[in-house]
## 1
Amino acid sequence: MSRPIQIVEVGPRDGLQNEKAVLAPAVRAEMVRRLEAAGARRIEAVSFVHPKYVPQMAGAEAVMEGLPREAGRSRIGLVLNGRGYDRALATPVDEVNVALSATDGFGLKNQGLTVQGQLAMLGEIVARRHNAEASEGAPSLSAMISCVWGCPFDGEVSTQQVADVVGAIAAMGVAEIGLADTIGAGDPWAVTKKVEAARRAAPEATLRLHFHDTRNTGLANAYAGVEAGVDVLDASVGGIGGCPFAPGATGNIATEDLVYMLERAGFDTGYDLDALIVSAKWIGQAIGRPAPSALSRAGGFPKR
């Protein structure tokens, strides 16, 4: 079990967006730098959403100003629509991640769009890239589908619903497609089933998985994803996070907990576990509450 597993750090975006504390852009940029020093090579640094709705993400441009481009590191900006995409293009982000939903209920609440409306929005962004913007130095593009394993408004989400959305995104030529358990409703067996369906719908795409630990199944779901052959997983330092538009959603799986599990099994993540634990404690102090991750309390093993 020596294959590398890429962990995309999402703490500065998904981790902070549901916290009561609103951190200044300079602090958020410092968070990114600390996490990169601990081994993060892809990191979701900002979200280009309206600060009226997600004040924790205000000042995305200022965050990126504090993060000049560096070789070997990729800073990702999340967008919900074309306006967010325009903002992202005006900054030095390396990647743009477009958020969509597997359900109409969440899509209408989060973006004011049905599933078909969201796919049309993504199609417009893809067309713009093909027509004018996919030049050298332009940010790469990925898509993340929320509510794959359950929706707070529509309830259960069928495997066919997910496969249909994945297939539509793949047909646009998007190279990386994420599957997100936004409310932490999934189980390992359902993870296997929907990963297999997504792979059939998009055999050429890279699949990326994003789990929340709302019901204590996050690491088990990550295990199932790795066993199903997925090599790209999201995680948030300290286990902080959640979605302000999904009632009851709590934190992402913790980066340090995931790194510990994978590296104990022999997988290579490229992270420094001790440095991650220090970063988790630092962010806990910054947001005014202890980070909920297990490793930030127990530490690694064996003790050094």
## 2
Amino acid sequence: MKVLANDGISKAGELALKKAGIEVLDNRVAQDHVINFINENNVDVLLVRSATKVRQDLIDACPNLKIVGRGGIGMDNIDVEYAIEKGLYVINTPNASSRSVAELVIAHFFSLARFLHESNRLMPLEGDTHFNALKKSFNNAYELSGKTLGVIGFGSIGQEVVKMGISLGMKVKVLTRKPKTKTISLSFFDGQTVDFEITSSNDTDAFYKDTDFISINTPKTNEYVIDTPEFEKMEDGVFIVNTARGGVLNEVTLVNYIESGKVAGAALDVFETEPTPELILLMNPNLSLTPHLGGNTIDAQEKIGVELAEQIIEIKKKL
């Protein structure tokens, strides 16, 4: 069996595959040449992240392909249903990067609440001349402890965000289309585990009322999860973080509500026009921005590689 990890795979994942007698090709093939490469090299497994697209034309043109794998959760760059119809196995890693994404959410909340993003911009420019003025301008900061955290979405990432909110002493509420109850377990360094039973709600009015920090953790959607009606329900001075997908939050409306004072600050890791975010976002001092780094940690990539390898090895036994 041959694997083309076209967007890369961790060393741990590569070693696990090789140990199972599976060949791993370390080529990086441009999208226009992927089909030819797969056919010329008799590739059985195509692994991608977000760069390589697996559409119907590729699936049709590569009859020997047996498995398509996505290193991550969302599979909007793969025509999943069509691939399954054609008899391919389609795999992903829904849990491997959840912790990394959730930690980025909380990092952005800390950055916004303490003005770290803006302080880091201005200190190199004005720190030696306007130190006291900067100190004064950043003194309206907040603690996260005791505040209310609202999480939109209750998948693996949403659950990790809830865990971190609880561990910081935040009040937690969750919004989903249909109410769900999950047991959230917090494990500590000394072996203790504490369980919390959290029930989500589909009542948007109750969700947005008195919520101080909002994290969006949904899959890709066809319409905005947050737009004007949702902003109108929020409390003044709310903080928002989107690490889900570009297009779940109306960025133009967000900027308008930042300018009106309704939104105190927001963080974006994903963008509607990615990979070329709008200049109005890049220049806004009330935005904390990162270039789609949610699952980009060494830890997450190691877990993603191993999780993909384990699934491929199991499928190989069936073939």
## 3
Amino acid sequence: MNPALTVPPAVGTALLDDFSLEMTGKDVARLEEARDSIPPGTRINITFLAGEDLGMRLAAARAVKRLGFVPVPHISARRLPSRGALEEFLSGLAADGTAENVFVVGGDPARPEGPYADALAVLRTGLLRHHGVRHIGISGYPEGHPAIADGSLWSALTDKAAAIGADRFTGDVITQFGFDVDPVLGWLEAARARGVHLPVRIGVPGPAGVRRLLGYAGRFGVATSASVARKYGFSLTNLMGTTGPDRFLHALAHRYDPARHGTVKVHFYTFGGLRPTAEWITRFRQDGRP
């Protein structure tokens, strides 16, 4: 029997204290539906996607705050067409009282749409502090990135962590989701060895259809071999079901060592399923099962 699956529920659920969720600017109605299932004060990240305009992003942050949660608006560096666009977004957040926490990421475009090639370039503008930002989230990739070499990823992570510390922000790292605990724990140890001591929120998928999960995994270069799929709890030959991260979380809790891995929390990618994810978390925290 796999010892990771026999961990007492209290151990497996302790990592869910202060979990965070992710939504898009189009998910405000879904957040309204899920509000009673989400603990007050939960951090909710708001993505910065193509096809969403300034008004939609600001409205989503306002909704998160209005419903009693902590908005964490994303800033996608390569999607910003100008310094003015960054200032306009930050000014709007500041005016609404939603600028204290942000998550800064490079973004998907192959070529920058403006002056910012990566997240570090945004951090170095000085505009975040000026507009009231106090906490900055940055990204981490335990299984690498399909378009960025590992050496560049490590340099970017250490440079961003150093910039956050030098400017006296608080911060954390949110990782891309995965199905296998082994690369996550190895990456955590490597990050700590490189001097990155920010809290890390391990990205996990909320409960979702297997086919949909595999689609996102392929997009982000997440390993999905047959052995990894079995470990996580689904089969590559049966794509019709739904699966959650219960095995992953039990395995993580079983092997997590604060002395080696530092402060670790959990971040849920909801794929639009805010209420199913929140209800899944509630059930899991109660008895360690979905």
## 4
Amino acid sequence: MTADPAPWSLTRSVVRTTVGPVVVHARPGPRPLLLLHGVAGSWTTWTPLLRAAHGFTGRGLVLVDLPGWGSSPAPAQPLEVDDAVAVLRSVLDALAVGTVDVVGHSMGAFIGMHLAVAAPGRTRSVTLVSGTTFAAVDAARHPVRGVLTLPSFALLRAGLAVTRSAAVPMLRGLARIGLLRLLAAPVFTHVGALDRSVLDAFVAELRPAGFLGAARTGAAYDTDRWRGIDCPVTAIAGRDDVFARVRDLDDLARVVPQTRTVLLDDCGHFAHVEHPAAVLRALGDDAVSGTAAASRTPAAGAAPRRSS
């Protein structure tokens, strides 16, 4: 990962919204992509995918640090999903961007789905990368049951609820004594192979209050609202994702019948970080607009086998 926007000709700006200033990195161009990070993330989360895609040459890019994450200050009140959509509308308006293809990771995928519900005229397509959907919503609603159905999510939520702001110094301490990879192991399938910059970003970007707020928002959300989505949807998931379940893909396809699903073997919750080439193939330049099927041919090297 890198925090340098120069390789992709991204310009940093600050957009004033109803919940406060939001930091945006953007590049003008046709058929713009809106990239939305997840928890413990910022715009930099997408740099492995940008590198694999050679910056999506010829396309516009909009990468947002959502309120309370990355360099965007936390709002005065916890952010609801409708507030997040209002923020994105303000960002797109400020950049004079009309319609976008949305690619969201984890919480960002959740927000991207609601953008397609609440602002269908702004959304050409939605791609979920390791999206938190039905299993995470159920675990957030029923914490005790969540310990059995989605234990890593439930235990992380409980741990952050207890430690709160002390969690980040604790993680930094673990990093200093070399135990951070052990703690991050449930989230990444091959944590030992990760570049140190990924783990450093994981610590730097963790926001306990933001995570707990996102869980509360998810618990209150009615996923039946997704039945109103009429744009193309692609859902990319890792078989080893501890914040989701493989059956979430089938459940999503039942609620949104036009969904195309891609399951990546040997992959955890950060598919675009662990296997950016495989995610890029699943997207494809045309697939982002929902007009092409994903290639089933694995790239050379460490890319995982996948099924769809």
